[in-house]
Amino acid sequence: MGRKSIYNSLRPFVGKPILKRYSKERRGIEMKVSKLVGSRFKERPADCVIDSHALMVRGGYMKNVGNGIYSEFPLLKRITAKIERIIRQEMDAIDGQEVLFPVTLPADLWDESGRYESVGNELLRFTDRNNARMVLAMTHEEAAVHLVREYAQSYTKYPFMIYQIQRKFRDEARPRAGMIRVREFTMKDAYSFHTSQEDLEDYYEKCYQAYNRIFARAGIPEVVTVASDSGMMGGNISHEYMLLTPVGEDSIVVCTECDYRANMEAAENKMVNEDTDAPEELQCVETPDCKTIEDVCNFLKSDVKKSCKAVVYQKNVDDTFVVAFVRGDYEVNETKLRNLVGGEIHPAEITKEDCLVAGYIGPYGISKGAEVYLDVSLKGISSLVAGANKEGYHYTGLNIERDLQKADFVDISKIQEGSICPCCGKKAITIKRGIEVGNIFQLGTKYTKTMSMQYTDENGQQQYPIMGCYGIGVGRLAASICEVFHDEYGPIWPITVAPWEVHICCLRADDKEAKEAADQLYQKLLADGVEVIYDDRKGIRPGAMFSDADLLGVPIRMIVSPRNLKESCVEITTRDKSVKEVIPVDEAIESVKELRKKLYDQIQEKVSR
Amino acid sequence: MGRKSIYNSLRPFVGKPILKRYSKERRGIEMKVSKLVGSRFKERPADCVIDSHALMVRGGYMKNVGNGIYSEFPLLKRITAKIERIIRQEMDAIDGQEVLFPVTLPADLWDESGRYESVGNELLRFTDRNNARMVLAMTHEEAAVHLVREYAQSYTKYPFMIYQIQRKFRDEARPRAGMIRVREFTMKDAYSFHTSQEDLEDYYEKCYQAYNRIFARAGIPEVVTVASDSGMMGGNISHEYMLLTPVGEDSIVVCTECDYRANMEAAENKMVNEDTDAPEELQCVETPDCKTIEDVCNFLKSDVKKSCKAVVYQKNVDDTFVVAFVRGDYEVNETKLRNLVGGEIHPAEITKEDCLVAGYIGPYGISKGAEVYLDVSLKGISSLVAGANKEGYHYTGLNIERDLQKADFVDISKIQEGSICPCCGKKAITIKRGIEVGNIFQLGTKYTKTMSMQYTDENGQQQYPIMGCYGIGVGRLAASICEVFHDEYGPIWPITVAPWEVHICCLRADDKEAKEAADQLYQKLLADGVEVIYDDRKGIRPGAMFSDADLLGVPIRMIVSPRNLKESCVEITTRDKSVKEVIPVDEAIESVKELRKKLYDQIQEKVSR
Fold it and tell me: Which H helix or E strand runs over B96?
């Protein structure tokens, strides 16, 4: 397959007919910087914590309307439209059929799945004029099952996948970082339906690859997948697509020796305590005024790595105490614990009347009224310091395997830097930060069972279909690309998602010759179907014009100036500063088109097939 | 300009790259009827009043999710995507810049414009997790002003137009007729900003023409514009785009002699009573048990056309009575009355204590406590029957001009069939029914003034920009097209918005030769970039296959059957039954492509430039 076809295939807006109505040319839509709606300014807004947010506000990409709610200026809308187009093409290529679900849903659909009750405040519930209960959809599993449960009553209809690109609302407690964590957003969400786990897994793999292509085509092949915990979505196997960046809000566990990657919830903490010290005798000692494990270790002058810390929760259903014991220097991962407990939990409030003695809780002699979990980080330690379940006292010399009647160790702690990789077994775990730009889930039958969706199989038996679901946040992806590709002056958009391909700056547009030359180049590029924005503002200094161009982040820049025109030349540069050439005017169009091809090819090379 | 270029320009999905990834061909996306997600069934659903609703439910286009809320199956999504594409192209062609506003808006934006208070229950108000007041946007004037009020502070930025295609929610009291009147819907809404009324009018005219092109390209050049009342939008001049159909919910005033068209609210009732009878003497007569004007006329054996009817309202602000007098056979148009009153009114509740005598209200001797409006339908009548403002009595022989001290006639009645055209003056008014598929408004400064959006003019003075706004409901347009183009078996989609261009039916797909021939034709059409859906289901009778095809409403059908193949032929028909040909297999592709071109040309011929 030739380069040319690949190149064309990557250019979302090319081939769009009637750009100039009823012309045979594939003419681009005219746009001048002087007409582009959107305010640009110099000052970094005080409320912007991360660079992409600051630059996209400063550049006139978006405007805050309310808490975690934004309007998109034309600049951002062009970028998100390109992203959506890439997504649609890849979803269609894996036999996805585009549908549209409503943003507002009747509560009874969410009653069916049980999520009207089980999801927290991030689900916005409201009532309409007739007092009917409704929700703003934050995800559309219920709507997807509702749409197809009459259609897909025979096994012959399977498998199939439906997707939509639609607004969603999630009433986040703390919206932040511009488009990274908002309350209202555009999302592509896809739902696949299968008659067997194998078939789901086959499709899951296809979708996995489609996602890799989407991110590569959007210019960020760096996105990595991590195994994840499915959380409130139900189901088991799931992956998150993470863009690694220091400003990301998620922690990702990465092995430097193999390709293991997981989020903190999914990363198994494989602890091996190589403790060769002889076990001490179990002793109850007075530890006055020692409320934390650090206090105790300081007081006893013992190593915190030889201590046993208690973290106490209560079950939401009946307030039963759940005590998690981890090594003093480890943290409990609540998601892991919640999965073991099998229900929602919250931090405990312990009173004098309770069976637990706050500050002095230990596994030895603990009340039978509490549910106890021992983390693997405690395994194999010869002598531990631990609470004595008695006000003002701790044990020393606790050896769990020796002293407790029953000692099942489970994985409820957060993995740490330098831990053992659960995949290759080497001590090569690092913790990185990332932005989640997509996720895929094997949902199983959670929704089809609760919502009574069934089909008749080959043998005439009724079965519940197995589902997968697949999401990408469009606005977050745009912001993530900006977060990766920017400098202090503005975004550096990959050409596949850039608002335009070429930016013409006419310095001294009051100079007749310069203006005429720039006008001609602009018209020629438009006529050739190149997406071009033209800055022909008069009376603006080159520095200001370039500052604006930097904020627009268009990959190719063509600079027309009286000085270069004296030599019959124009200057061509790239936003990333890798190219800076002065070339004859009459070669300018071809040079720009070649450069453009090269930029698309560079992205294409990273798209795996 | 040649036919070919016109033809290509009308085909929204052609030219879309990477239909088959990385192939040089403009290959269509594969789709078989057996895989198309959506249920089809025979029975007309009981709750469907109009045909388009019934057919679009029966055909698997959409599914009701809640009161006035629908999901779109792939079939409808393909149609709305084509409509959106046509709209985008025409908006871009008049220099529109696409933006995106949120669906959820903070209430304080609507406080600024005053609409948080003034709009009724159709505005859905809710609170978020922090108890902040919010609304679901039903229209986006406030959001538009919010987006651009910092940007457009200098006259040099004007004029400009921004538009979006976005979901909206309007909490309709009575959703009905499928996609015609729903609560959640996709709408294209555009907002233009100007520095002079002349400039607004110029742009308004451009948009007016763009709308005509949009409807013509969507296959319904029959759409007419009517002058309308702006209602809650503010401003003065506005037009509605009406598709005339007996099932429409709006009444439209049309002159058969000139091109005058208006909605009932905007149509001036030009009454001339040619009453040559000599005026009678004013007499107060007893009219026992006559509560309605018909009762009175029957009792007095007088013509209802010579009676004066009272319709009583109260002002919302202070419950002042507003009495509208119209000729006995006319109806009050509340919008006209409201505009005269200058505020909201509601039907009156009259008690014994009030200054009005219910059932006997007349203009002569009425209490000064009521605000009185006399309709033009009463002008020039020599002798009227009217209430005497006294329990059990009416006047006869009332001559308003003679008997009342002051008699200003105003237009507060609904125009009737056969009335005088306000434009050409002929008695040629007819009343038609229509669906409103779009509207355009000259908003004036209502929003810029209330929301403090200003710019500095050439002279350094602060001014309020003048706005226009322009809406089209995407789903309603799809349903309207179906309402106009259908038969008892299904929709007959115009090729520009049809879900596919060609539908191949392989009768007897169990016949090896028939299957192979159909497969080949399918692949060839796909390779040529034709949008084709293929029915190769086995064991299905031709009647059932055609029924499904009729419900899909694809304009061109190619039927491959063993019988025709014996003669080396296939059959080509159109959904509207205008074409039915048996042609040699090896000419089939070219024939289909020619027919396709013809169908696009037929639509193009009606698009005015």
Answer: strand B96-98
Single pTM value for the model: 0.85
Residue A483 tokens, joined:
């977060």
Q: Do B23 and A5 touch (CB under 8 A)?
A: yes
Looking at the predicted structure, is the pLDDT value of residue B404 above 70?
A: yes
Which chain A residues are Cβ-neighbours of B23 within 8 angstroms?
5
SS3 A100: strand
A570 forms beta bridges with: A583
Torsion of CA B513, B515, B521, B525, to 10 degrees: -170
Who's near A567: CB < 8 A, 6+ residues apart? A582
Domains, chain B: 3-30+500-604 (3.40.50.800), 51-266+430-484 (3.30.930.10), 283-410 (3.90.960.10)
User: Is 60 exceeded by the pLDDT of residue A230?
Assistant: no
CB B126 within 8 A of CB B154: no
- Residue B478 CA to residue B52 CA, distance in Å, equals 9
Q: Please give the average per-residue pLDDT across A371-380, as a whole number.
A: 91
Q: In what order do the strands lie in the sheet with A283-286?
A: A283-286, A393-398, A384-390
Q: In the prediction, which pLDDT does B229 show?
A: 61
Chain B residue numbers with beta carbons less than 8 Å from the beta carbon of A129 are: 121-122, 124, 171, 173
CA distance A575 to chain B (A): 24
Which of B199, B250, B204 has its CA nearest to residue B223? B250
CA A356 to CA A389: how far, in whole Å?
Answer: 7
Return the closest-CA partner of residue B191 out of B227, B137, B118, B122: B137
- How many CB atoms within 10 Å of residue B174? 8
CB contact under 8 A, A37 and B70: no
CA distances, B529 to each of A6, A487, B23, B585 (Å):
18, 42, 12, 19
The DSSP letter of residue A420 is B
**pLDDT attached to residue A26:** 58
